[in-house]
Amino acid sequence: MSPAGPVLITGGSGFTGVHLARMLLDAGRPVRLLDVAVPAAERRFVLGADADALTEDMITASVDDWSAVLDAVRTTRPSAIVHIAAVVSPEVLARRPNLALQVNLGGTVNVLEGARMFDVARTVVFSSIGVLPTRQYEPIDVAHPLLLAGEGPNTGSMARRRSAPRPSATPTCSASGSTCGSCARRRSTAWA
Ligand SMILES: NC(=O)c1ccc[n+]([C@@H]2O[C@H](COP(=O)([O-])OP(=O)(O)OC[C@H]3O[C@@H](n4cnc5c(N)ncnc54)[C@H](O)[C@@H]3O)[C@@H](O)[C@H]2O)c1
């Protein structure tokens, strides 16, 4: 582990990855991106003046390639790893479920194992937006109910949700400061 090493972001060219990279750079933390693809134009826009340097310096590798992941951690000696790389398209995953295993599961194991072998001090594994049921309130925070194992579409058990404290305040519309029609609808459907 190198305390001065960069934060290695897998999936660093993606939506979440570039925003995280931007935030870390703004906080003075060096960053390396690892991804199978370079950042697209709108992602480069988020990276701003650092887009060229980050793209030139990025590690082009797939997280399901164990030796490539190991090599990336060995050569980068990151202070932390943020693992965001994932195949997120439900349409792709429905057609190729083995890809979910290889990349989303196997890739995560590879990253964790690389971190373990090279004593990386901190590894953050992003959860999936797919763990959230229908939004109960906004902004979503850590108390928001999650779908648990055995729940979700096709399980017929959407009612079993992790309980979370009911918001104490009546939701109000940020525009009007009172309860608008949309807020009232949201309140009437929440916590059903
Ligand atoms: N977008 C959100 O609001 C949000 C919220 C919570 C969690 N998440 C989770 O974060 C993860 C990423 O979401 P996103 O919106 O940034 O998706 P995204 O598709 O924009 O980014 C994913 C990145 O991973 C890369 N990638 C795919 N397969 C790879 C592989 N084999 N090796 C290396 N890189 C690979 C892609 O090229 C892409 O750049 C997902 O698991 C998602 O569920 C997203």
List the topology elements.
Layout: E1 7-10, H1 15-26, E2 31-35, H2 41-47, H3 51-57, E3 59-60, H4 66-76, E4 80-83, H5 90-95, H6 97-117, E5 122-125, H7 181-189
Parallel strand pairs: 1-2, 1-4, 2-3, 4-5
Helix pairs in contact: 1-2, 4-6
The structure holds nicotinamide-adenine-dinucleotide (NAD).
What's a concise summary of this model?
By secondary structure, the chain is α/β, with parallel strands linked by helices. It is 38% helix and 10% strand.
Describe the structure.
The chain has 192 residues and is α/β, with parallel strands linked by helices. It folds into 2 domains: 7-126, Rossmann fold (3-Layer(aba) Sandwich); 135-192, no CATH class. Helices cover 38% and strands 10% of the residues. The chain is built from 7 helices and 5 strands, in the order E-H-E-H-H-E-H-E-H-H-E-H. The protein has helices at 15-26, 41-47, 51-57, 66-76, 90-95, 97-117, 181-189, and strands at residues 7-10, 31-35, 59-60, 80-83, 122-125. The chain has a 5-stranded parallel sheet, with helices on both faces. Helix 1 links the parallel strand 1 and strand 2 (31-35). Helix 1 runs parallel beside helix 2 and helix 4 (66-76) runs parallel beside helix 6 (97-117). The N and C termini lie far apart (48 Å). Mean pLDDT is 82; it is low at 157-164 and 166-192. Nicotinamide-adenine-dinucleotide is lined by residues 10-11, 13-17, 35-37, 62-64, 84-88, 103, 107, 126-130.
